[in-house]
Amino acid sequence: MLTLLTDNLALWAQGLQNTVTLTLLSALMGFSLALPLALARLSRNRTISGMAYGYIYLMRGTPLLVQVFLIYYGLGSFSRELRNIGLWWFFRDAFNCGLLAFALNSAAYQAEILRGGIQAVPRGAIEAGRVLGLSTAQIFRKIVLPIATARMLPTIGNELVLLLKASAIVSVITVPDIMGQARSLYAQSFDLTVFYVAALNYLAVVLLIEALWRRLEGRNRWLHFAGTV
Length: 229
Known about the structure:
mainly alpha
């Protein structure tokens, strides 16, 4: 096992970099999409709420692998049209397609997490903002969103770990992530030990995420109270 690791350090380093980059970028992009989705779900307008619900239901109800295939192979069949509008440079890259699929999928899950976090904000905190003369936008930005985000940290941490482990899917569309490098080395050596090395790589990143998240949660523990302000 050590030989497979030390003799291919460059390959494993590239795979680790691609895996971590894909996970972090898809989580960040997913969160930026999740916020408007969560607000749409909370909207009193049934059309807006229904459209957001339909998107979330579709993304959560279909396999991530299918979504990756639809973006990579499905949109790839429209290469001429994508060239005409100047987007082929993005969709011809397997990593970009995987990133887009993961971001769109993660947005659906994070939107539901965020919606629950917003609904769990104590009304007393909102009323206190109104007493201080804050506008609705200021109350949301300075009170609701920080409290909701702090309360969601454990669930968001779980989503990040799940994204990391699910990232192995992109190896099937030729992305040289950790699993992609393991499959490539296995095709050369037929040594199953490469998958043990891959598992250790994933485990190391998961342990790092959990350590960072515990520290982050500790710094925001004061926002986890259940009472009113």
